[in-house]
Amino acid sequence: AVDLAPHDIYFTIGETVGQPGAPFPDGGRAWLYTPPPIFLPEWPALPPSGPGRYTTVAHWWGGTFEYNGTTFCNEKRVSFLEYLDLPTRTPVPLELAVCLAEHYDEYRQLMEPKGWTLREAWDVSATPEAYRTYVQQSRGEFSCAKPAYVTLQTAWVSDRTLCYLASGKPAVVQHTGPSRLLPEAEGLFRFRTLEEATAALTSAEADYERHAALARALVQEHFDARRVVGNVLERALEPRVSAVRETKEVDLPRGLLAQLLDGPGGVGRVQRLKQRVYRLELTSGPAGHRSVVLKRLEPGVAERVRLVAERWLPALGLGDRCPRLLAVAADAAGATSWHAYEDLGDETLASDPTRERVTATVDLIAQLHTRGARHAVLPDVRRYGGALGFSYFTANVHDAIAALEALVAAAIEPPPEQAGVTERLLERLVGLRADAARRAQVFEQAGGPDTLLHGDLWTINAFVAPTAGGLRAQLVDWDRVGVGPFSYDLSAFLLRFPPEERAWILERYREAVAPAGWRLAAVPELTDLFDTAERGRYANRIIWPALALLSERAAWGFPELAEVERWFRALDQSPVLDVGALTPC
User: Residue 35 has what DSSP assignment?
Assistant: First the structure.
C-alpha cells in the first residue's frame, strides 16, 4: 500500500469519474477532474526526422478484473489484435514497440505478415532520453486502448499520447468515451472501428502540417503542466469552492449568493471550467434551475472587467456583446473578488470554427475597433487598462534586454539542454531594438487610430449563438482589455487559425471596417504590424522567468526561456501573414 499523509481532496485524470451516469463506482469520494500534465519545454515540436512511421510504445498484457459479475479485460494485446489487418488497408507504415520478452518471435510471426513492424519496447524506451527521441522521430502515433477503458467510457488519454501531440505529431487513438477536451479529428483522431482507424490515418496524412500544428496547440491549451499543476494547487488550497461534493451547497461569499438566489434555494453542482473560473448551478425557487459562470479575480482586474460590462461596451452600443454581469462580491479578506456572469454554454468559436461562425466573430471585432477608435471612453480605458500600442513593444523589448543582461552578469548557467538560450535571446532582442525605428515608421503610416482592444482575442474567448436575426457573437474574458491599434487584437486572432485560413479572415475584417471609412494598409505593412505585436508579446514573456531566475534561481526559468525562443523561431518560419500567399489591397 502507498503511505499517504491524511487528505480530503481527491483528483482524477478520468473525465467521467464520479459523474452522473458513469458505469463504474466512485468509491464515495468527491472526485475533481484534472487533465494529465505534460511539461512542454521538455517536449518541443519537431518535424519527423526518421522513417515515416506512426508508432507507439505499449505493454502487451494487463490481466483482467471483475466488477458486479462482469469481467473486464485490461490487455492491450486484445485491442491491437482486433486491428491486426489495419496495415493492409492503409499505406501509412505502422510500428509497435511493445514489451514481449520471450514471446517476441511468436507475435512477430503473427503481425509482420500483415504489415506491422514490431520493436522491443526496451530498445526504444530504456531511458527518458531514448523514449523522447523515439517519439519525436516518429511521424505520428497509432495506438489502441485497453478494452476496459473503452467499455467503461472513461475518456482516458495516455500520457504517451500527450508526448506525441506535444512533439507536433498527429495521434490516431482508440475512442474511450465522450470528452470535453479531446477532439475527434483535429490533430488528435479517435476511432471506434477498423474503418474509422483507416479513415483517420488518411485524414492525418492528407493535411499533415495542419494536424501537426493542431496537435501541439491541443496540449498547449489543455495539458500544459505549469497550468495544470497550478490549477490543482489552486483547487487544493481553496476548499470553499473546490473540495465540496458537487451535490452539496458551496460556501461562496454570502453577498454573492444573496444576489444570485431568488428567494429560497441553494447551490447545486460546481464544475471547474479553467483556472479561477467555475460553472455554478443554482436551484432558486420560482426562478427554477439555471447556471452562472463564476470568476475569481484580483481586485484591480475585477474593477476593470466590471467597467467593460457596465460602462465601456455600453458606451459603444455593444453592451450585449459580452456576458451580463449578474453579481459582484469580495471574499472575507478582501483579497479577491468574485464575479457572476450569465452562462453562455460551451460552444466557443474554438470548438466549432465554421466559416459562418468565424465571420460573425470577425464582424464583432470590426465593430469593436471602429466604434472604439478615438471614442471619448478611451481615456477611462487607459486609466484602468493596458497600453497595447507601439510603446508595448518597445517597453517589453527594453525590459527583457535588461533582465537578460542581468542574468548574464549574474553568471547563472542554464542546464545543458538549454545551453546558450540567454545569449541567443539577448542577441535577438538587441536586433529588435535596432529595428524599432523602422517599425515605428510603419506604425505611424499604417497602424491606424488607437481603439478599444479586447487584449486576448483567442477563439476560446468568443461564443457564437444563433438568433432570429442570424448568428450573434459575444466576447468573454476581458481581463487584458486596453488601448492600442487594431493590429494587436487581429494578430492574436489570426494566429489561432491555420495559415491557409488567415487570408479570407483578414479580407473579411477589411470589408467589415470599410463602411466606417477605414482602409487597411497593404499586406507587407500589415505583416510588420502583426509581427511587432507578436514579438512584443514574446518579449514580455521573457521578463518574468528571467527575473525569477535572478531572485530565486527558479527551476522553471530556463525551460520557460527555451519555450519562448521556440515561439520566436516558429514565427520566423511561419509569420502571421504569408506575403506571397496574399494579394495586397
Answer: P
